[in-house]
Amino acid sequence: MMEINNLKKTILYDFHIKLNAKIVNFSGFYMPLQYKSSLEEHIHVRNYSGIFDVSHMGKFIIKGKNANKVLQYLTTNDISKIKIGQAQYTCFTNENGGIIDDLIIYYLNNNEYLLIVNSINIEKNKKWIISNKKYELELIDLSQEYSLIAVQGPKSFFYIQKLTSISLNDLPFYHFKIGNICGIKNVLISHTGYTGSIGIEIYVSNKYAKYIWSNILNIGNGNIIPCGISSRDSLRLEMGYRLYGQDISENITPIESGLSWIIDFKKNFISKNFLIKQKKCGVHKKFISFYVDDIKILIPRNGYDIINNNGSKIGVVTSGCYSPIIKKCIGLGYLYEYYHNTFPIFVLIRNKKIPIVEKKLPFIKIK
User: Fold this and answer.
1) pLDDT attached to residue 342
2) What is the rounded average pLDDT of the residues 79-93?
3) Which of 3.40.50.1370, 3.40.190.150, 3.30.1360.120, 3.40.50.2020 is the CATH number of 8-57+144-239?
């Protein structure tokens, strides 16, 4: 493998090499793209369980007597709706409503929160928080000190329960507990994930990550397999989960991207007035989810043109993949202003005008 300067490695990097993973540059990290087959990994997660190294994600502790006030102002969702032991999906926006980052906030203790942010935005987020805080606040960046292991799939609770004293079946979605796993104390285990399947995420100090990873693979005895970012991407796409840098960015607002449900206009926050105006007057982009109406495997890739019947460009694809569950090629994208009600629409793939059909998310129903 050719070395790429300045890329970081997670603490589990050597394990990926031993497992013969194909390694790629992802958000500035050496990350496993796949181990054997991304298609097999995808199907295995939907039917059994898979383990993902997502330690590249940013991890901030925000604490202080004004932590709640600062986060209320910086994020669009209402943080007062969650209690200690709960998590919330939200986003940072700039003054024009553009999404600086989407993130998950965990309410750890009184005046203390854990923020999980996208790795590509770690430094940008720190600067944004510091430059916009109105009160005293302590920000601790644990991104390089803690690992994040995700176990996803319908069998994940069954196997992980053998390793932890936490009752996983009593852990509702977007809730977490801090307890024992593999004999390691004070580990945060949350019922969250990026696949849509049942699963957990484990936040642990780097010094214990290899031990926990190995224990999970051993207890799974082949029913839990290592999975890379390729299957993680196709799994999240089946649910319509947005990916920062593709489906959302600083040039796209949460309203335009179909994420209005994480905006609470009853509170004050950055860009509130702009987003209220956009909600009343309409958006410049329309988020769409669709499948390709063709029997061949023609995948709509990021950047592909969406066109009308006359061949004029009316939008763009932001994400696309083949779904092995519904056996169709699926995608996310945007239609530009004035084309929101255009029909029929097509995606241009290899200079071919391929019909697409809009489909309400998610693409699949998880049992």
Assistant:
1) 80
2) 98
3) 3.30.1360.120
